Amino acid sequence: MVNSSHEAMHRIFQEDPGIFTRTFRTLGIPFPDPVAVSLLPTDLTETKPLERRVDTLLRVDTADGDGYLLAVEAQVRKDPAKHSSWTYYLAHLNAKYGIGPVLLVVCQDESTARWAARPIRIGPPQWPSLTVRPLVLGPHNVPAVTDPSAAARDVPLAAFSAITHGKDPNAPAILKALAAALKTVDEETAVIFGELTELGLGKTPAAQIWRDLMAVDLSFFRSETSQRLRAEGKAEGLAEAVVRILERRGVPVGQDISDRVSSCTDTDVLDQWLARALSVTEAEDLFT
After folding, report:
1. Parallel, antiparallel, or unpaired: how do β-strands 130-132 and 120-122 relate?
2. Could you tell me what percent of the chain has a pLDDT over 90?
3. Rounded to an integer, what distance in angstroms lies between the CA atom of residue 208 and that of residue 182?
4. Which of 8, 177, 205, 275 qualifies as a cystine partner to 200, CB 3.0-4.6 A?
């Protein structure tokens, strides 16, 4: 079953596909910069009643014309059954799209990462017919971003660093750097990567550290946003911000909710709704 930690690790690649190139360049693997990236269907099921889905599938086009497919899998524990699935993914993708696929496996602990990085050989030992070589990212090779200025230069990489190092003793320093970096971006971007980081940390002790940091830092975004909109004297601006933040966080906003928020002219009430929009899981909870 896909859990929230698993979901967050590959969603960062959807938010910023370029993180793949930047991260592997630090490891000496010179993937070219993408000129275009498109999200492809993740369903690899054929007519047989066997469902196979890759977590994220991207088509990456490069300036030299030699594009590739990037299949991202988030792996939270060792699972020998994945070897046959990963082999199937690559063979199927190559046959379907006619483009060379790259399997990227994202892990949160070094033991799982090193297991996932082992070549998968299909066939008898004396003559393997197929060898699969996953590219693996984990705490053993993703840089620990502890410098706030470095985190501010690349917020997606800093968030990804925080997730992959969530079980490390160095996690608090990484999280503090990320929290500081989020103050340098707009509130919508900060909310997105703040949420992804919390999901990615799962049930690790670092998750509580992150929640404590965000309890303080999200008040910064609330106050900055509300002060700016109040200065403009626009209640409708506050109302738009409430709806926009809910939508960017993936919280469904029905027409009745949208109408109630947009019709409100009381800036004190809207300010309360704006604060709640950063944490509620149901749009109706704005009003309770």
Report:
1. antiparallel
2. 24
3. 18
4. 8
Tokens of 58: 């991207």
Rg (CA), the chain: 21
Selection from 189, 188, 193 nearest residue 161 by Cα: 193
Q: In sequence order, which residues have a C-beta less than 8 Å from that of residue 94 and are 6 or more positions away?
A: 100, 101
CB 161 within 8 A of CB 143: yes
The string over 221-231, giving b where at least 16 C-beta atoms fall within 10 Å of a residue's C-beta and e elsewhere, is bbeebbeebbe
Q: What is the pLDDT of residue 10?
A: 60
Give the containing element (helix H, strand E) for 59: strand 56-62
Listed residue (215, 151, 220) closest to 181, CA to CA: 151
Say what the alpha-carbon torsion angle 210, 216, 219, 221 is, to the nearest 10 degrees: -60
CB 19 within 8 A of CB 13: yes
Domain map (residue ranges) of the chain: 4-137, 146-220, 233-288
Let me know: does 201 contact 166? Beta carbons within 8 Å: yes
Q: Please give the CATH topology (third level) of the domain spanning 4-137.
A: Trna Endonuclease; Chain: A, domain 1 (3.40.1350)
Which residue carries 């929640």 as its tokens?
211
Q: What angle do CA 54, 7, 156 make, to 5 degrees?
A: 105
Mean pLDDT, range 133-153, rounded to an integer:
92
CA distance 221 to 190: 8
User: Confidence class of residue 4 from pLDDT cuts 50, 70 and 90?
Assistant: low
> Above 60 in pLDDT, residue 232?
no
Percent of the chain with pLDDT over 70: 82
Amino acid identity at 266: D
- In eight-state DSSP terms, residue 204 is S
Q: Which of 24, 7, 5 is nearest to 157 (CA)?
A: 24
Structure tokens of 88? 């199937």
Report which of residues 73 and 220 the model is more confident about. 73
